[in-house]
Amino acid sequence: MQWNVDFSPQSVTFLAKNHIPEKEVLEKIHLVLRKFNGEDVSVDVRKAKGKWAGFHRIRSGKLRIIVAFYFKPKEVFIDTIDWRGNVYK
After folding, report:
1. Is-contact 83 62, C-beta < 8 A?
2. Which pLDDT score, from 0 to 100, does residue 85 have?
3. pTM for this structure?
4. Closest CA to 87 of 32, 35, 74, 61
5. Cβ distance 68 to 53 under 8 Å?
6. Which of 41, 53, 57, 58 has its CA 20 to 30 Å from the CA of residue 79?
7. Residue 1's pLDDT is what?
8. Mean pLDDT, consecutive 10-residue segments, the chain of 89 residues?
9. For 57, what's the count of Cα atoms within 13 Å in the CB-facing half-sphere?
10. What DSSP letter does each residue of 24-76 carry, written as one string?
11. What domains does the chain contain, in order, with CATH numbers?
12. The pLDDT of residue 59
């Protein structure tokens, strides 16, 4: 199962500024995809509401990842990565 993952410019900048490797975010995305396939994995993911409708929120400690999953073309778009409290602004 091969998925195409695309990072927004904001998310790439945040990762570089905070010295967080892309691999860490990709591991969270992989866990969410496994959860969507019915596996019992430990990952905190929820559908977003309001202006973020259509996206999912992944929580990892104080880090929040706002991501959209497109199942037909098997694409993932990481829109925003930020600390809790800042991500929804």
Report:
1. yes
2. 85
3. 0.91
4. 61
5. no
6. 41
7. 56
8. 91 96 95 94 93 93 95 95 86
9. 19
10. HHHHHHHHHHHHHTT-----EEEE--GGGTT-EEEEETTEEEEEEEETTTTEE
11. 4-83 (3.30.2310.20)
12. 95
